């Protein structure tokens, strides 16, 4: 099994639609750190699991300096963003979304995850 990961910093804003009162309901920004984890049993014709520049284009270039409420069709929590990333990148099985120091959400597609994966 081959594994690759791509880490990106993304500047973006969001406001959360919550069932309780929170300052996060107001529009605010973060410098997000996102790590996309991909894997493949076989390399593609170019000798890659996934092209890092294509991962960057699909995630960073789409979200960077944007209002996530306008760009994403769901409540843009770190958890929902992590799931969106896994669904968006074909070979992706895991996404780590760090909203700020100490606040990270991880989504792992259990159907694609390897129980022996050290990143799990």
Structure commentary:
The chain is α+β, with helices and mostly antiparallel strands and 120 residues long. It has helices at residues 52-58, 60-63, 68-71, 78-88, and strands at 2-14, 28-40, 66-67, 92-100, 103-108. The protein has a five-stranded mixed sheet with strand order 3-1-2-4-5. It starts with a strand and ends in a 12-residue tail after the last strand.
List keywords for this structure.
five-stranded mixed β-sheet, alpha+beta, elongated, 22% helix, 4 helices, 120 residues
Provide the fold topology:
Blueprint: E1 2-14, E2 28-40, H1 52-58, H2 60-63, E3 66-67, H3 68-71, H4 78-88, E4 92-100, E5 103-108
Parallel strand pairs: 1-3
Antiparallel strand pairs: 1-2, 2-4, 4-5
Provide a brief overview of the structure.
By secondary structure, the chain is of the alpha+beta class.
Question: What amount of the residues lies in strands?
Answer: 35-45%
Assign the structural class, choosing from mainly alpha, mainly beta, alpha/beta, alpha+beta, or little secondary structure. Answer: alpha+beta
By DSSP, the count of extended strands is 5
Total of helices: 4
Note the main sheet. 5 strands, mixed
- The largest sheet has its strands arranged as 3-1-2-4-5
The poorly predicted ranges are none
What is the average of the pLDDT values? 94
- Gyration radius, to the nearest Å? 15 Å
Task: Please write the string of helix (H) and strand (E) elements.
Answer: EEHHEHHEE
Level of helix content?
10-25%
Q: Which outline best applies?
A: elongated
CA-CA gap between termini: 14 Å
